[in-house]
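Dear Dr. V.,

Thank you for agreeing to look over these. As mentioned in my earlier message, I'm a first-year student in the group and I'm still getting used to reading structure tokens, so any feedback on how I've presented them would be very welcome. I ran two proteins. I've put each sequence directly above its structure. The first is here:
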Amino acid sequence: MSYARKYDEFQKRGAEITAISVDTPEQNKAMIGKLLLPFRLLSDPDGDRAIKPYGVWNEQRRIAVPSIVVVAKDGTIRYLYKGQDFADRPGDAEVLDALSDGISDGTR
């Protein structure tokens, strides 16, 4: 799924997309410009603010595990998908369904 291409669909469902990486704010800004991302890309270089609390930190490599996390407005995790690599992503329907369904765990 390209979340940038499906951005309107997420907005229709009342969702806000925010990406988080271990890269610096400058690197993220360049990535937003290069990929023309319509959503925020935040920096969490040590993983302490969001990556580790969501349980998607690879301590050995000191990076985030490629993941999709759907968080409800009350802060509860509605969906969690942990990929094996950067190309391992759930299908469009699975993520979009998580916006209206109950709690789901897509962990592999």
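The second protein is here, in the same arrangement:
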Amino acid sequence: MATRHATLGAATIAVIGFAIWWPPVAQPPEYLVFADQRALFGVPNALDAMSNLAFAFAGAAGLLTLARRRPGALTDGWLVWPYAALFTGVVAASVGSTYFHLAPDNARLFWDRLPMTVGFMGLITALLAERVHRSLARALFVPLLTVGAASVAYWYWSERHGMGDLRPYLVVQFGSLALVALILVLYPSAGSGSAYLVAGLAAYAAAKGLELADAPVFAATGHMVSGHTLKHLVAAGGVACVVAMLRSRAGARRI
């Protein structure tokens, strides 16, 4: 156990240290330009905006699953809080991302990214509580949420001052998910739905690939759907995997 704790701690320090050592990462100007800019029913950038409904459905399903859970679905009643943070962040991200895609700019992107950090930190806290150390997770919950929000605030402040720096936000997004993967490896737990979490992480990785291939996917599909639109749908599928994990435990009541 001590070795696993040390490995996780060293990995966390390494991620933070790497971000500090790495030069500032500016957001590319083309990030705000998306391949599919078609309007539909008067809605600009319609598919990129409307595909966020998938996040709303997945997040709402997660919150409802928590509300209707049976005893044993969570190993500790306190775990409702980090899982609620995850799903609330997803629902809020559906609103923030829709707002952003209607007229993409950095001010609106702030409201897209902020709730995402709530979701990332909720997930890592839940996994810490379930598999690593319950008291540590409780102590870190609010500080982690604060760090997540601060990473987006710092990015936006740096953009406003002409020295854009994404490093803290990238650590929160990719570092937290990398630590989730490491926790699954170091702290296996039979019957806890690990396969759902692995599938969720795989879905998120695929979603990021689709995001990077926004224009090529749009071209490959004959301008039917872009990579960014598919990114929203696949990432929402990753959240649905977490919902399925919770529903598989101790038979959460049907929604």
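From my reading of the second output: Residues 2-22+38-248 form a domain with the Rhopdopsin 7-helix transmembrane proteins fold (CATH 1.20.1070). The chain has a mean pLDDT of 92. Does that match how you would interpret it?

Kind regards,
E.
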